[in-house]
Design a protein that fits this description.
191 residues, 3-stranded antiparallel beta sheet, 17 strands
Length: 191
């Protein structure tokens, strides 16, 4: 099962593939003839069983943003969003610090968008970035640090309602559209 894909400038394809188990996910590069490029082999792992790659985004310089639910890349601890060099090695100039904050085990990163100034919009289900409150939507600088100038406020959830950013789009005038996934849960009454 393919969970994410991106096409590189030379026509080769990056795909995130699940091999039937949620913790067996690889990011592969396919040559233009469809054969696998075995020189590209990032090892993306999660410390517990469930893992997901939700997005791949190629930057103009060829580096690759990978978003998902993971805890290490090439045996280096990192969470939720990383940048790879063109050869699949971890780009250590990009760092989120502590990553995305949630009240639970891990964030869900569902969408990424590269703005013309190379800053990165990230949407999903999270409460903050590296200890700074940013609910569901954040913008990162080129080096992965939080852009403090971008804050859309707080997405309020009513009792029994859960929201997450599911998609992002950039309009021609530079404004951003965010598609929300809203889930409701029936009132189960007092415990």
């Amino acid at each position: 099962q393919i969970s994410a894909y991106a096409i590189q400038a030379d026509g080769s394809a990056l795909i995130a593939v699940s091999h039937g188990q949620p913790w067996q996910i690889e990011v592969l590069r396919l040559n233009t003839d469809g054969s696998r490029d075995f020189s590209f082999n990032p090892e993306i792992r999660r410390s517990n069983e469930w893992m997901r790659i939700a997005g791949l985004l190629i930057q103009p310089d060829g580096r690759i943003l990978v978003a998902g639910n993971f805890t290490s890349v090439n045996d280096v601890p990192c969470r939720d969003l990383v940048r790879l060099n063109q050869d699949g090695g971890l780009d250590r100039t990009f760092s989120l610090g502590g990553g995305f904050d949630t009240p639970y085990d891990s964030a869900r990163i569902n969408a990424m968008l590269l703005q013309p100034d190379d800053r990165i919009l990230v949407g999903g289900w999270f409460a903050g970035v590296n200890g700074t409150p940013r609910r569901l939507l954040a913008r990162l600088n080129v080096d992965g640090s939080l852009d403090d100038s971008f804050h859309v406020g707080y997405f309020d959830e009513a009792d029994g309602v859960e929201m997450e950013v599911a998609s992002l789009a950039l309009q021609l005038d530079g404004r951003v559209l965010a598609g929300l996934k809203v889930s409701t849960f029936p009132d189960i009454g007092p415990a």
